[in-house]
From TrEMBL:
<keyword id="KW-0472">Membrane</keyword>
<keyword id="KW-0186">Copper</keyword>
<dbReference type="InterPro" id="IPR001117">
    <property type="entry name" value="Cu-oxidase_2nd"/>
</dbReference>
<dbReference type="Pfam" id="PF07731">
    <property type="entry name" value="Cu-oxidase_2"/>
</dbReference>
<dbReference type="Pfam" id="PF00394">
    <property type="entry name" value="Cu-oxidase"/>
</dbReference>
<keyword id="KW-0449">Lipoprotein</keyword>
<dbReference type="GO" id="GO:0005886">
    <property type="term" value="C:plasma membrane"/>
</dbReference>
<dbReference type="InterPro" id="IPR045087">
    <property type="entry name" value="Cu-oxidase_fam"/>
</dbReference>
<dbReference type="GO" id="GO:0005507">
    <property type="term" value="F:copper ion binding"/>
</dbReference>
<protein>
    <recommendedName>
        <fullName>Monocopper oxidase-like protein SKU5</fullName>
    </recommendedName>
</protein>
<dbReference type="Pfam" id="PF07732">
    <property type="entry name" value="Cu-oxidase_3"/>
</dbReference>
<feature type="signal peptide">
    <location>
        <begin position="1"/>
        <end position="23"/>
    </location>
</feature>
<keyword id="KW-0732">Signal</keyword>
<feature type="domain" description="Plastocyanin-like">
    <location>
        <begin position="160"/>
        <end position="313"/>
    </location>
</feature>
<dbReference type="InterPro" id="IPR011707">
    <property type="entry name" value="Cu-oxidase-like_N"/>
</dbReference>
<dbReference type="InterPro" id="IPR008972">
    <property type="entry name" value="Cupredoxin"/>
</dbReference>
<dbReference type="InterPro" id="IPR011706">
    <property type="entry name" value="Cu-oxidase_C"/>
</dbReference>
């Protein structure tokens, strides 16, 4: 067996050399085995979704224009898709990993994602996109570094740390899904995790003995880049580090105007980079806190994640009360004003040498306007559902992009309304019809009592405005047309609206969804269809060789054949995967 293991390692290195050396842009390769493991992040044994046996999963580390190749082996007992939040999948919605573009990966199958991180930098994360699975894990960070020829707008940090925060239930995703199917709310989470671990025992009443907590070890005087992602179910979290300033530098692929915060609200699905200098004395460790926001905080004290910042020369443990979060329980403007203060650094270079602000979005004429209104859940056909503009989205049996490619009729409707419906809510596969190279304005109106956040695949959009009340045409007078942050996930406060602008230059089928998992699961999503009438490979890549088929196209799907299912089209990669899959067939990489 030892000789087989050596042969495996040797052949993998040969394959990697062949693959890496022959591609136009470098490849980075990851093998994901997605499975259940038992963990006890809040002291209660439960089933979580792990990648390669780890919870959370590994951080993907790439550089602008790299080809990222991820071979996913599904060892769950249900279908799986992985999506890459904020990765724009330029010209290739085939790789987006949501049901509008991809057939799911069945249990015991493997499928290879192959995409280029074209003209992107920044901090992102990935997660399983189906059926509430993110509530059980399966997530991890995704870093895109600048190319060496492009300078970053701050001194190179002494370290780079990914921090995944999120509310957490001790019930797994299948139990949470059943609650929603039965018409129930999920209720208050059981806690907040930091990098898959529960809270440090800062309070013996609220935190039981034996909880494993996250510790970040740092060196005094050094500056670290902390990439913080809210990967939770539905709770906005306020992030802070005791006695340390958070210098905001980047959000979801855009460099920001650098500003210090003592704490920042991070909404579900959002990502931020902070530069944090270890400039305090080392008399003791310091608390890292992620606490629930926009809730009755006296009842939600247990929904607090606590980790430890440990200086290498620390003289003692953290003790005493946690650093206070915002004292604004009765001031609903504080958080919104903080959000408005986050601005685009127009003079910094992003993935390209030219300054970010050279794209003057404020001077472009809008071609389409859509108002997407969220309301509290409603009953449709006897089931509790969520809606956008009066439509609860029904996932198609044949993915929309595949239906278009093979001209499948009646797979979806291209009739999503520009303004909210006024009649009875509908359950439909209704899609927004957009104009390629158009410039769309989307107003997200939240008429619910809960905080929501929304994500758009395929693009970075410009957040140009937000306010309380009902959006009107006159609201455009408040828009920021110069340095609104470009990102892929925006919060919408209860009883408020947020406005975004999108330059529709990326052909494909692109998901617009609530990031709150309960709202998403119950139907709060749609898709934008962006089609170039002069179809060509310059604006969209052809269907990948290893595409999976389902629904009306099910007869096209061959039985799982590892060598063909893993076939890809990147130069030099076919040989790599052919050899790798031969190894994988005879010598399993994972016991």
């Amino acid at each position: 067996m030892a000789s087989l293991s050596f042969l495996t390692v040797l052949l993998i290195h040969i394959c990697l050399f062949v693959s890496f050396s022959s591609a136009e842009d470098p490849n980075v390769f990851y093998q994901f085995e997605v499975s259940y493991v038992t963990a006890s992040p809040l002291g209660v044994p439960q089933q979580v979704i792990a990648i390669n046996g780890k919870f959370p999963g590994p951080t993907i580390n790439a550089t602008t224009n790299n080809n990222v190749i991820v071979n996913v082996r599904n060892k769950l007992d249900e279908n799986l898709l992985m999506t890459w939040a904020g990765i724009q999948q330029r010209r290739s919605s085939w790789q987006d990993g949501v049901l509008g573009t991809n057939c799911p990966i069945p249990p015991k199958w493997n499928w290879t994602y192959n995409f280029q991180v074209k003209d992107q930098i920044g901090s992102f994360f990935y997660f399983p996109s189906l059926n509430m699975q993110r509530a059980s894990g399966g997530f991890g960070g995704f870093i895109i570094n600048n190319r060496a020829v492009i300078s970053i707008p701050f001194a190179t940090p002494d370290g780079d740390i990914t921090i995944l925060i999120g509310d957490w239930y001790t019930k797994n995703h299948t139990a949470l899904r059943k609650m929603l199917d039965d018409g129930k709310d999920l209720g208050m989470p059981d806690g907040v995790l930091i990098n898959g671990k529960g809270p440090y025992q800062y309070n013996t009443t609220l935190v039981p003995d034996g909880i494993d907590y996250e510790t970040l070890e740092v060196h005094p005087g050094k500056t670290y880049r902390l990439r913080v992602h809210n990967v939770g179910v539905s709770t906005t979290l306020n992030f802070r580090i005791q006695n340390h300033n958070l210098l905001l530098a980047e959000s979801e692929g855009s460099y920001t105007v650098q500003q210090n915060y003592t704490s920042l609200d991070i909404h579900v699905g959002q990502s931020y980079s902070f530069l944090v200098t270890m400039d305090q004395n080392a008399s003791s460790d310091y608390y890292i806190v992620a606490s629930a926001r926009f809730v009755n905080e006296s009842n939600w004290k247990r929904v607090t994640g606590v980790g430890i910042l440990h200086y290498t020369n620390s003289k003692g443990k953290a003790a005493g009360p946690l650093p206070a979060g915002p004292q604004d329980e009765f001031d609903k403007t504080y958080s919104m004003n903080q959000a408005r203060s986050i601005r685009w650094n127009v003079s910094a270079s992003g993935a390209r040498p030219n300054p970010q602000g050279s794209f003057r979005y404020g001077s472009i004429n809008v071609t389409d306007v859509y108002v997407l209104k969220n309301k509290p859940p409603v009953m449709i056909n006897g089931k509790r559902r969520t809606t956008l503009s009066g439509i609860s989205f029904k996932n198609p049996s044949t993915p929309i992009r595949l239906a278009d490619w093979f001209k499948v009729k009646n797979a979806y409707k291209l009739d999503f309304p520009a303004r909210p419906l006024t009649g009875t809510p509908k359950l439909e596969t209704s899609v927004i019809n957009t104009t390629f190279r158009g410039f769309i304005e989307i107003i997200l109106q939240n008429n619910d009592t809960k905080m929501q956040s929304y994500h758009v695949d395929g693009y970075a959009f410009f957040v140009v405005g937000m306010d309380y009340g009902e959006w009107t045409e006159n609201s455009r007078g408040t828009y920021n047309k110069w340095d609104g942050i470009a990102r892929s996930t925006v919060q919408v406060y209860p009883g408020a609206w947020s406005a975004i602008l999108i330059s529709l230059d990326n052909v494909g089928i692109w998901n617009i969804r609530a990031e709150n998992l309960d709202s998403w699961y119950l139907g709060q999503e749609t898709y934008m269809r962006v089609v170039n009438p002069e179809a060509n490979n310059k604006t969209e890549l052809p269907i990948p060789d290893n595409a999976l088929y389902c629904g009306a196209l099910n007869k096209l799907q061959k039985p799982q054949d590892i060598s063909s299912a893993a076939s890809i089209t990147t130069n030099g990669s076919k040989l790599f995967f052919a050899l790798l899959m031969i190894i994988y067939t005879f010598v399993p990489l994972f016991p």
